[in-house]
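R.M. (postdoc): so does anyone remember the format we settled on? I'll just put the structure tokens first.
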């Protein structure tokens, strides 16, 4: 629980609560010494009517409540002494708070909230009536300024209470409170103004008429809100809060014969059924809400966002969208790739962007093109190898290809290392998730070399210390790239630690023995074997037997003995290198 010292808002509300209840107690003392027959009748009438209306309220978007009894309480300011005006709210407040099964602090906070607003407003009204005189213009000015003051005080204290409850910044809550001052709310204050003028001669009648009119206003707004809610539910997706398929199809029909000059984005959550099956539907629902929120935050109005199907979304922009905008959307969506308290949860997104190429293009034609491009991306990101599909972002695959083009001696190196590491992981009994993780991680294990100068990658002679530092940095660079794209811990371990040595002499962290993750120890064997048996800029390729002898010789220094033993077993009698050419035909048993 936050301490008062650490939470200024809590401290302010604490002081206001004490102050408001002290004022309330002083009013009770005044009641027993100065109550008249006329005041008692007015207090009973207003208190009873307010208590009857007390349970009736509308919850506004900001979290505050609008109650029809508040305007009636304001009439006490103009018809009763200020010490008595603060007491008429007690019966209704007691009922409201009791119905909420609140604890004592909530009673005191609620009493203080209403009391302070009424007391300050009544004090100011009495002061202005004394200073401005008894003329009719002075009366009107006094009433208007008093109501305006009460509106400000009431909304400000209410904003503080809701901000504390919702743990929301006070400034944000105040902005919400200002935005929701609809005409029904303001008309209630106008009603009080007119009733206050009437109350000079007919106080009890003015209270009764104000109650009848306020009930009518409130009923009309309540019914309007219900109708509005029903209309919204017909066009809004209940889970994500964005527009639903009915809204999209209506929008499509409206624009059937109207030329379209903007852009559409079709978004699909790949393998969403696996998320539901593995983590449950509650987590799946959370993922869908996050996707919708990411799309809305990436492209606010005038763009519109629709949930077209279970895991499919459409973004409509009346203006053409650039490739940079797509990159920004991908960046927002990449943030979804977080564990949310569950390991190995990944959200994969495929998107297709289409922009009207001519002024005569129809919305449905652009939709078909965007949908086709989305499916192209979905298929392009699937790499079928070893009988299973591994999903990798197309941007990352493009980087991998670019790296192999930078270093002409390592073409195919990443895929071969992935194959060797996968086979070694299977041999050592890793589960299917870790097998896929080591495969994905090995595919991109050298992705950090994208930042290494070509001259260093292709240098024939010995590297200088500065050049060696460039090489030693590539695991960290690759880790940072893949981390932003939502790779799992095991996959990131392959990228970051595949150059660590069992004796602690590797890089970048100088980890040793079991400090090095198992997936990285496996990848290290596969990486070195392929590097040795491949032509490099500074030497010829080694024969298989030479590479195997080197790996055995480095057991316990460069490599984990358990990994070397399993590697030996895998390459007897047929070498993995011989199997590589036909490996795509083999089933993946996981």
């Amino acid at each position: 629980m936050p301490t008062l010292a650490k939470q200024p808002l809590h401290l302010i509300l604490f002081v206001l609560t004490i102050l408001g209840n002290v004022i309330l107690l002083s009013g009770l003392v005044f009641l027993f010494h100065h109550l008249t027959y006329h005041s008692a009748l007015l207090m009973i009438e207003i208190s009873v009517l307010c208590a009857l209306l007390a349970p009736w309220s509308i919850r506004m978007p900001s979290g505050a409540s609008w109650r029809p009894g508040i305007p009636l309480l304001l009439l006490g300011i103009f018809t009763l002494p200020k010490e008595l005006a603060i007491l008429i709210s007690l019966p209704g407040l007691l009922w409201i708070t009791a119905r909420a099964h609140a604890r004592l602090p909530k009673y005191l906070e609620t009493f203080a909230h209403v009391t302070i607003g009424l007391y300050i407003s009544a004090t100011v009204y009495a002061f202005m009536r004394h200073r401005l005189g008894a003329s009719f213009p002075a009366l009107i000015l006094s009433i208007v300024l008093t109501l305006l003051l009460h509106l400000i005080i009431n909304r400000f204290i209410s904003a503080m209470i809701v901000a504390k409850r919702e743990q929301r910044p006070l400034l944000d809550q105040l902005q919400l409170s200002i935005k929701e001052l609809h005409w029904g709310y303001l008309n209630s204050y106008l009603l009080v103004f007119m009733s206050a003028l009437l109350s000079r001669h007919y106080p009890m009648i003015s209270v009764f008429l104000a109650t009848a009119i306020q009930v009518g206003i409130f009923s009309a707004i309540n019914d309007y809100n219900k109708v509005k809610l029903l209309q919204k539910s017909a066009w809004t997706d209940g889970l994500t809060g964005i527009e639903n398929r009915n809204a999209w199809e209506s929008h499509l029909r409206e624009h059937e014969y109207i030329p379209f000059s903007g852009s559409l984005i079709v978004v699909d959550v790949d393998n969403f059924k696996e998320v539901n099956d593995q983590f449950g539907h509650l987590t799946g629902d959370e993922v869908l809400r996050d996707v919708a929120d990411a799309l809305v935050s990436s492209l606010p109005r005038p763009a519109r966002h629709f949930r077209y199907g279970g895991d499919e979304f459409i973004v409509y922009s009346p203006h053409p969208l650039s490739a940079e905008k797509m990159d920004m959307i991908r960046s927002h969506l990449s943030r979804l790739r977080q564990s949310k308290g569950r390991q190995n949860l990944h959200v994969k997104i495929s998107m297709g962007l289409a922009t009207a190429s001519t002024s005569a293009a129809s919305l449905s034609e652009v939709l078909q093109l965007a949908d086709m491009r989305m499916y192209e991306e979905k298929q392009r990101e699937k790499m079928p190898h070893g009988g299973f599909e591994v999903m990798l972002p197309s941007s990352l695959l493009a980087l991998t290809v670019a790296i192999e083009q930078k270093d002409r001696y390592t073409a195919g190196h990443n895929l071969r290392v992935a194959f060797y590491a996968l086979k070694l992981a299977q041999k050592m009994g890793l589960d299917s998730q870790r097998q896929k993780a080591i495969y994905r991680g090995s595919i991109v294990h050298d992705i950090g070399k994208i930042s290494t100068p070509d001259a260093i990658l292709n240098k024939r002679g010995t590297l200088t210390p500065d050049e060696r530092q460039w090489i030693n940095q590539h695991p960290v660079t690759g880790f940072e790239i893949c981390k932003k794209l939502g790779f799992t811990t095991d996959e990131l371990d392959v990228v970051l630690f595949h150059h660590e040595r069992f004796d602690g002499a590797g890089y970048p962290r100088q980890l040793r023995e079991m400090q090095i993750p198992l997936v990285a120890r496996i990848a290290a064997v596969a990486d070195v074997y392929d590097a040795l048996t491949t032509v490099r800029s500074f030497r010829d390729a080694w024969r298989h037997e030479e590479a195997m002898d080197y790996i055995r010789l480095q057991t316990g220094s460069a490599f984990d003995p358990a990994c070397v033993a399993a590697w030996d077993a895998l390459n007897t009698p047929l070498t993995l290198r011989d199997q590589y050419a036909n490996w795509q035909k083999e089933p993946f048993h996981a």
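R.M.: ...and that's the designed sequence above, right after the tokens. Also worth knowing: The first strand starts at residue 58 and ends at 59. The chain has a mean pLDDT of 80.
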